[in-house]
């Protein structure tokens, strides 16, 4: 909520939310001839369907005051959708724009009397809602001025020609630092006590009641080499606090959590025991092969750590330092789920006495936790602890979206540590900071009433690049997926893509890779959706999209997705880039049921992906049973009437790529094997909880079902 004042002194209270379909009529009424000259003749419905972010301002009477629409590629055809970065780098090399930190304004309308205030409020909201965003570009015809409103937030950077006509366009930019700058982080001082205590007391009074009124000042004074306290500062006042400590109970964590993907949060050591000893009595027998296969699907395998050259370490370390000065990313993290496959990766660290570098290993593994653990082996790590922990954290709600700004500073306090961990009670509401952390998977024998969240130093890198795969990526992808159950299927798809760009049956195929520090950190395989009529007739997909505004070739199906867990918080960005580079507007992911023997029904099954957390489930439609013989020529098409293999459909589209999604850490116990209990779970899974800042995504998601069906 904000208060805007018109030039005549009239005040208006405005609220900000995501644009909804019923706003379209009012948006059209706010479009003037000047608006059409700036942005062109736009189909508002179509634009909102393809927008990554659309913000609406309204007053207390629900009257629309302003609206702005943002996409991840430029308008006016001054650059191709998949290749605009080089064009804008040529305009101004000092603006380090990337697909991660850039959006483009495609439409802005406002009530004339409050247009300046509305424009600034929308810009502030966009920078708040997208923490990794640093630049907003605006492109208009060169013969047009911005007017008295947009010129207050945009500045000109150059001219660019159109690809389709002989006309020049002027490019303007809006910088984050002018509206919602990054937070200044420094060591805490005792004088910060008075600024911080109101923030703490707003959330909880237990600490003061337990440790006394001046516990915070005492904690700051007690700082030493192992304990540090830092604050974030705005205009000379402390608005956030973090206390970190290098002492971590590694034995307890190894007993309670599967830390294999992170090498046990320890530095590699020659005496590490990462695999169980072979069973000599079973070697060479078919049973031995089956046993080894079963064991491989129940634990995370570790690959030998790769040596990293000093030059590579310096290059990666330099990128982190450079990126940290520009941007800190924030996105939700997937919850650990002991019932599904997690696409996980490994890290390799290289330590030296003077300069500690590290490298992100390209190896990946699949961790499958089954209801009954038949193997009792757990890795043994002999290396020193490579982690520090967050003891206490609090930040003012106004600046919560910038919580990740703390991380680069605190990692600098512990140059020999590569991991930051934080443990929280199970029912703690998810806050912005831990949305960037990876939730560790607990063992079935874990009795610790805490969840463990992990963040790696390399997660601060902003040099992640998503691109189409090439033949030279094959070795990197092989290492990344070497321990996944469906690694052969992924590699076959990669080979098929590099050879023909389509399947033998003619279905278009695309493979994308995520590259960080010149290493492959992720891979995704999509195909054009060929069964779109079946999906439309059997699932309520129109709860999320206006189907008629999406071309047939804009629908794609996600088959495989693997991403190093260090960069798990970039999953949504990966999906957004798949849509942009692949010229898609919708992605579908099918989860097929498993047969009793534990094998997926279809031989060409998709890998169960950790990106599932960022997709929304689509409710199936109740089907009409058609008497086909009686209907004869009046019967519906086979795409509608045929009984295909049933599956659970998950979906994302361009509108959902920047949609916030919060995990609710709650345990729900359903007692009784009844249709009512199943109906309750069905309603809970497919709930469409709408909030003021939500368009159509499922924002609430229960991360753990503890179901007891008697």
Automatic annotation (TrEMBL):
UniProt-listed InterPro entries: Acyl_CoA_acyltransferase (IPR016181), CFAP61 (IPR038884), CFAP61_N (IPR032151)
Chain intervals with Basic and acidic residues compositional bias: 311-325, 343-354
Superkingdom in the source lineage: Eukaryota
Residue ranges of the region described as Disordered: 271-358
SUPFAM superfamilies: Acyl-CoA N-acyltransferases (Nat)
Keyword list, A-Z: Cell projection, Cilium, Flagellum
One Pfam family recorded for the sequence: CFAP61_N
Chloroplast found in the keyword field: no
Cleaved signal peptide residues: none
Domain Cilia- and flagella-associated protein 61 N-terminal: 16-267
Protein name: Cilia- and flagella-associated protein 61 isoform X7
Organism per entry: Vicugna pacos
Upper taxonomic lineage: Eukaryota, Metazoa, Chordata, Craniata, Vertebrata
Encoding gene (name): CFAP61
